[in-house]
Every structure is written in structure tokens, then in C-alpha cells.
From TrEMBL:
Reactions catalysed, as given in the entry: all-trans-beta-carotene + O2 = 2 all-trans-retinal
Family: Belongs to the Brp/Blh beta-carotene diooxygenase family.
Function according to Swiss-Prot or TrEMBL: Catalyzes the cleavage of beta-carotene at its central double bond (15,15') to yield two molecules of all-trans-retinal.
Principal EC category: oxidoreductase
Main location, first listed in the record: membrane
NCBIfam families (alphabetical): blh_monoox
Residues that, per the record, bind Fe cation: 59, 114, 230, 234
Name this polypeptide is given: Probable beta-carotene 15,15'-dioxygenase
Localization terms from the record: Cell membrane
Cofactor: Fe(2+)
Organism: Geodermatophilus normandii
Protein's UniProt keywords contain Transmembrane: yes
Length: 333
């Protein structure tokens, strides 16, 4: 697909998908927040976590097709790329098995970066700006949606972490306190900065996320954010890069691109679900399921984060109107 337009990628194909994704993600988060002061999540707080993790699975399922869609590659290139993707995932899984402690730290750091850059990239595209690197904002946003729930939910996460990293001691109590003391004021400052620069929707979103991570049981907060916010917004970007061209998404017709996405995502998602079903059957409750599933999640996250980082670079470096040559400069292989 060759982008067109004078200065940067037009909001066209992204705009409709981004609007729907914004509405869906905000509605889901507000609904989950509303449950807490009314009926309360109580003992069911693990449901949004596990459901959110499962719901979020397909968002990475067409990663192996993204460069092909962007660059118009033919199947042999795509097959090779999918193979490389799988090799990176297997290597990450082996690293997790060999050194779970350091691997978990790297996984959390990578996740903070991936979640934060996902937020800023989506906001840029939605506003019709080229994707820009915003390191501080990314760290703050990634910290807000992952580190704050982990810090607030340290007691819930402890048995999972103990199972993933056998023999590791408990985290000093100062760690979660420091995380909260740094990330929460930083997020409030980011909301204020966005508001002062006239980016009121982004400011409101940071405020909504602050309420989410402070009000809802922490791991449930992370689950709904992951499945209904991060994944939904990423899928919107994928729909905008629909292989059939810009016409459908640009005209706001999302059903056909969504169908093509669902078709392409079905097999990889089914394969991961089959592995997870086996993990669930062997696990003793949801904590055991998480402990066994985390290395798998981490393994899939590494190639996923790399592909999305490439996509961000492509959507920042290859502004519209420069033709395929501009895209070739940012080929991933
Ligand atoms: C450590 C830990 C968690 C961390 C999950 C992470 C870090 C998920 C990252 C996923 C990514 C980056 C997906 C890519 O799109 C849970 C399950 C919340 C709870 C238990 C302890
Ligand atoms: Fe992701």
C-alpha cells in the first residue's frame, strides 16, 4: 500500500478505526470501573484479568503479516518472516526457562515500553500526526497501566511470581511504594501537560486510566486495559493497513477489514488457545494458570514488540507521498 498526502499519512484509513477503538476501549474501562463502587468485583476480580489476557491474544496474531501488508511482500518473504518470528519466540521462551528471574524483569521492562509506545503511537495516528518517539510519555503510560497494578496488587501477584521464579525472595516493600510514588504524580503531570497543549482527549484518557488503576482491583484493572484497550487499539491500526487497500477503512467500512483480520488471526490464535487450554487443564486454579502461562506470554511478546516497534518507525519515518521507496528504507529484513 502506498500512502498518499502532502505532509504525513492522512488520518483517512486510521481515522474511522481509531474512533471506534477509542469509543470501545473507553466504554469497557468505564464499565469495569463502574462495577467496583456498585456491586464490587469481590472474589471475581480474577475474571477480568484472565478474560482480558485471552481477549488480548489475537491482537498479535497477524504480526507476521504486517510487514507483508505494508510492503506488498509475496508469500515466500512472509513465510520466512513468520519463521523468524517463531524462532525469536522460542529463543525467548528458552531464556525464560533458563533464567526466569532476569527474564521476568526484562519482560516487565519490555512490556512497559511496548504498552507506553502503543499508547503514544495510537494517539499520534488518531490525531493525524506521524508517529513520534516520546520516551518520557511512553514510560509514564506504560508504568501507569502495568507497574501501578503490579505494585498495588503485589499481594495477589506474589504467589504467581513465586511459582514463575522458584526460590526467589519477596520483593522489598519499598519497591511498590516507590513505583506508586513516582508513577502516579508523573501520570498526573502528563495529563496536565496534554491538557495545556490542547490534547484534551489524551488528557482525559490519562485521567480515566488513573481512575482505573486506583479504583478497580489491580489485576482486574490490568486485564481490562490489556484486552479491551491495548489490543483493541492495536487491531485498529492493523485494520487501517488492510491488505485490500485503504478504500474500506478510509470510508469507515470496517466490517470487511475486520473479517479479513479475524480470518488471518484465527489459526495462530487457535494454536495459542490450544496450548493455553492444556496449561489450564494442568494448572491448579487461576494463579497456577498464570504462572504456567507467563513464560508463553513473554515468549510471544518479544517478537510482537519488535514488529510493533518497526511499525511505529515505519509510520513515523515514511510519511505519505514519498512512495514505496520510503517504505523500503524501513524494511524489517
Ligand atoms: C508479572 C505478572 C503479570 C504481567 C503480565 C505482563 C507483563 C504482560 C505483558 C503482556 C504484553 C506485553 C503483551 C503484548 O501485547 C500479570 C499477568 C499481570 C499478573 C501476574 C504477574
Ligand atoms: Fe501488544
Amino acid at each position: 500500500m502506498v500512502p498518499t498526502g502532502p505532509r504525513h499519512r492522512p488520518a483517512g484509513p486510521v481515522a474511522a478505526a481509531a474512533r471506534v477503538a477509542t469509543a470501545l476501549s473507553l466504554a469497557a474501562v468505564v464499565a469495569v470501573v463502574a462495577v467496583e463502587p456498585t456491586v464490587g468485583w469481590g472474589d471475581l476480580a480474577w475474571v477480568p484479568l484472565v478474560a482480558g489476557l485471552l481477549l488480548g491474544l489475537p491482537h498479535g496474531a497477524v504480526d507476521h503479516l504486517v510487514p507483508a501488508r505494508r510492503l506488498g511482500r509475496r508469500p515466500p518473504g512472509t513465510a520466512l518472516f513468520a519463521l523468524g518470528y517463531a524462532v525469536v519466540a522460542v529463543l525467548a521462551w528458552l531464556a525464560f526457562r533458563a533464567a526466569p528471574g532476569p527474564a521476568l524483569l526484562v519482560f516487565v521492562a519490555l512490556s512497559v515500553w511496548h504498552f507506553g509506545t502503543g499508547e503514544t503511537a495510537f494517539a499520534d495516528l488518531r490525531a493525524g500526526r506521524p508517529v513520534q518517539r516520546q520516551a518520557t510519555a511512553s514510560l509514564v503510560l506504560g508504568g501507569l497501566v502495568l507497574l501501578v497494578p503490579l505494585a498495588r496488587g503485589a499481594d495477589d501477584a506474589a504467589p504467581v511470581l513465586a511459582a514463575v521464579v522458584p526460590g526467589a525472595g519477596t520483593l522489598p516493600a519499598a519497591v511498590p511504594v516507590t513505583v506508586l510514588a513516582v508513577v502516579l504524580p508523573a501520570a498526573a503531570a502528563l495529563a496536565a501537560e496534554r491538557l495545556l497543549s490542547g490534547r484534551w482527549l489524551e488528557a482525559a484518557e490519562v485521567a480515566v486510566l488513573l481512575v482505573l488503576v486506583l479504583v478497580v482491583p489491580p489485576l482486574a484493572a490490568f486485564g481490562v486495559w490489556f484486552g479491551c484497550w491495548h489490543a483493541v487499539r492495536h487491531v485498529a491500526r492493523v485494520l487501517a493497513a488492510d491488505p485490500a487497500g485503504d478504500a474500506d477503512p478510509a470510508a469507515g467500512r470496517l466490517a470487511a477489514p475486520l473479517r479479513r483480520f479475524a480470518l488471518a488471526a484465527a489459526l495462530p490464535t487457535a494454536a495459542v488457545l490450544a496450548v493455553l487450554a492444556w496449561v489450564w487443564s494442568a494448572a491448579d486454579g487461576w494463579r497456577g494458570f498464570l504462572a504456567a502461562g507467563l513464560p508463553l506470554l513473554a515468549a510471544l511478546t518479544l517478537p510482537h514488540a519488535l514488529v510493533v516497534a518497526w511499525l511505529d518507525r515505519a509510520e513515523g519515518d515514511a510519511p505519505a507521498g514519498r512512495g514505496p521507496a520510503a517504505w523500503q528504507r524501513v524494511r524489517p529484513w
